[in-house]
Design goal:
Length: about 210
Amino acid sequence: MEFGPNVTVFNHPLIQHKIAILRDKNTNTKMFRELVAEITALMTFECLKDVPTRVVTVETPLETCPQTMVLENSVAVIPILRAGLGMVNGVHMLFPTAHVGHIGLYRDEKTLEPHEYYCKLPDGIEDKLCILLDPMLATGGSVNAAISLLKNRGCLNIRLMSIIAAPEGIKNVVKEHPEIKVFVATCDRQLNENGYILPGLGDAGDRLFGTK
């Protein structure tokens, strides 16, 4: 299924292997949390392949040489509460100095529209590459609201990483924010009548934190 040039759907056997275990209803909280971090780390490698860099001079035991390094304070990781928190450690495995912000959204039970209840972002967010994290991209409503929130605060370079996505969610994000680069580990079949991804993996937040 094609979603456009800004959408990357991973088809790596290591990621698919880990997703198979992640989906299993018998996978416990500890293993689920570890798998989310591992999958995120594998995705981060691709997501940050064009991260801002600078050239420095390094002295080896034999001589000096020019070497590329990631530009300091150039990346911010923004999990959407609460499930997005489970992906932060995965990014930090590869990029431990990335600053972290948080966005909290709740959904109105009558209108189903997302509303902000918390937002704390690193200083200078408008100059950073912002990686928005949400393990489940279902309808796309919360993600679209979070992207709009970041744009309203001056963010110009935003990327989204999700583990499980529905086609409807990807299409909604691409439609509302066509310039955003979207990275998903796998795209599932569809949403059910209650907005859950099929085959999915249930509620990612509950499985991450053992609340159900």
